[in-house]
Design brief:
By secondary structure, the chain is α/β, with parallel strands linked by helices. It contains 16 helices and 15 strands. The structure holds adenosine monophosphate and zinc ion (ZN). The site of zinc ion (ZN) has 3 residues, from loops.
């Protein structure tokens, strides 16, 4: 079997995956900022890492998967200024900031579970790790890479650059970075224009605040991921992931913080997912083109022709490699729906295939190709293409033509499809009902058919039982001249 190859943003090339301490793998993925609903773009990133997590588990690694919840420290501006996003939303909805955090964390979990994403091993929150963030900030000050001004602690990027490459992840040099950053104004407390806050002094009106050696305040955005990844995965760990939009600032600053604190690279393989776009524009909260997953499931959005089940949406996402952009369109979703159904029908057919004495094809070829695809930087679209090739074979065997399969190969083929479709791609059979109303109608039709049958046999006890049980859940059956009808009381 070929080794697993991963594209590493740090080195900008594909590399053989050599975990630090096999079979253990430490993986950290930046989680959502829970001041609003996650949109479909966010989901793409989390589904991509779910695929990666699932394949690592399938390959036999023991993965500790840490995905944080950002529930503090996000300001409106990207230069450590502006209103706190959580406090702003709390004011708007007239609730406590932690009610906002709870509401959107629950929503995030619900959505990811609809997409059949596995929960991470640890899901730490920024507010639950304030002391770790303060400790790390203190260490960075002790190493001489941060300074305090008026209760706020800044990371000293220029000083860091004397010995380290600040643009190592984004592949940009210092001059380039400086030229693209606004000059400091008279009001600025920072020494250098690239400096960023590790700890921010709380203004009098700021609700979410904690005591620190520098007075009451709250952590900057980037320090939480450095502190929590170090706590749960160590000073250097295997994989760190997130969307590509995080490279330039968030992950660049994470590397600088950790290197300043521990004098070593924090991450062996940096992995980044590309963006979900709508008509070529990145889906984002600020661009106003952010579909909520719920809108996609129901079809309740002006850009949608109809709704699509979560598994079809998951399949649609996995049909593109995680490092390519994925443009949303109704046509693409409809094509994915057809493809998904073809695959699921093939899996059902597998249970009914009649084995022959010999196989007329080489099953290990298909298997090898599936593993080759996934070992080549988790190439799910190529994997899916090979699974479709197999569907053609399955259909031919079922048609009773010249293609045959032995009993042993049939067992292996079933395992292959189950392992890859359900285990690695994380798909599951989607109910054929589009929504709950349709499901209720179909169930009631089935119940009424049974009632009709028992009445024909003059079994009025069972017929009454059916009526009484339905009444308990407020469903009334009426015999009318046009037949039996039912309604909710
Ligand atoms: P946020 O809640 O904004 O911090 O984002 C959570 C995750 O979603 C981050 O890893 C982002 O990089 C990622 N993300 C944001 N927008 C998109 C998008 N349009 N497509 C894919 N991933 C995205
Ligand atoms: Zn992060």
């Amino acid at each position: 079997m070929e080794p697993l190859i991963i594209y590493n943003t740090l080195t900008r090339q594909k590399e053989k995956f050599n975990p630090i301490n096999p079979p253990f793998v430490g993986m950290y993925v930046c989680g959502p900022t829970v001041y609003s609903d996650v949109h479909l773009g966010n989901c793409r990133t989390f589904i991509s890492f779910d695929l990666i997590y699932r394949y690592l588990l399938h390959a036999g690694y023991k993965v500790r998967y840490v995905r944080n919840i950002t529930d503090a420290g996000h300001l409106e501006g990207d230069r450590d200024e502006g209103e706190d996003k959580f406090a702003k939303k709390a004011k708007l909805e007239q609730v406590e900031p932690m009610e906002i955090v709870q509401k959107y964390t629950v929503g995030f979990h619900e959505v990811l579970s609809l997409f059949n994403a596995l929960p991470p091993s640890i899901e730490p929150t920024a507010t639950g790790h304030i002391s770790e963030q303060i400790e790390m900030t203190k260490k960075i000050i002790d190493q001489g890479y941060a300074y305090e001004t008026n209760g706020t602690v800044y990371f000293d990027v220029e000083k860091y650059c004397k010995k380290n490459n600040y643009g190592v992840l984004s592949n940009r040099n210092l001059d380039d970075l400086l030229n693209n950053t606004r000059e400091l104004g008279g009001q600025d407390e920072k020494r250098g224009r690239l400096d960023f806050a590790l700890w921010i002094k709380a203004k009098p009106e700021h609700i979410m605040r904690w005591p620190s050696p520098w007075g009451w305040g709250f952590p900057g955005w980037h320090i939480e991921c450095s502190a929590m990844s170090m706590k749960y995965l160590g000073e250097t760990f295997d994989i760190h992931g997130g969307g590509m939009d995080l490279i330039a600032t968030h992950h660049t600053n994470e590397v600088a913080q950790s290197v300043a604190c521990n004098h070593k690279e924090p991450v062996k393989y940096w992995m980044h997912t590309n963006m979900l776009t709508v008509n070529g524009v990145r889906m984002s909260k600020s661009a106003g083109n952010g579909f909520l997953p719920g809108e996609l499931f129901t079809g309740d959005h002006p850009l949608l022709e109809r709704g699509y089940p979560p598994m079809v949406v998951r399949f649609f996402m996995l049909q593109t490699h995680y490092r390519s952009t994925l443009d949303f369109s109704n046509e693409a979703l409809q094509a994915s729906e057809k493809g998904f159904e073809r695959l699921m029908n093939a899996v059902k057919l597998l249970d009914n295939l009649k084995p022959s004495e010999h196989s007329s094809f080489n099953l290990s070829d298909i298997k090898t190709k599936c593993y080759q695809a996934m070992n080549d930087d988790f190439n799910s679209p190529v994997l899916i293409a090979h699974l479709f090739d197999g569907v053609r074979l399955i259909n031919s065997i079922n048609d009773g033509g010249t293609v045959t399969i032995s009993s042993a190969d049939l067992g292996e083929l079933k395992k292959l499809y189950h392992d890859f479709l359900f285990g690695v791609l994380g798909l599951k059979q989607e109910s054929s009902f589009q929504n709950n109303d349709e499901l209720a109608t179909n169930l009631m039709n089935a119940v009424l058919a049974i009632r009709k049958e028992v009445r024909a046999k003059k079994d009025f006890t069972t017929s009454d039982l059916i009526r009484d049980e339905l009444k308990k859940i407020n469903i009334i059956i009426k015999d009318t001249k046009d037949g039996v009808v039912w309604e909710k009381e």
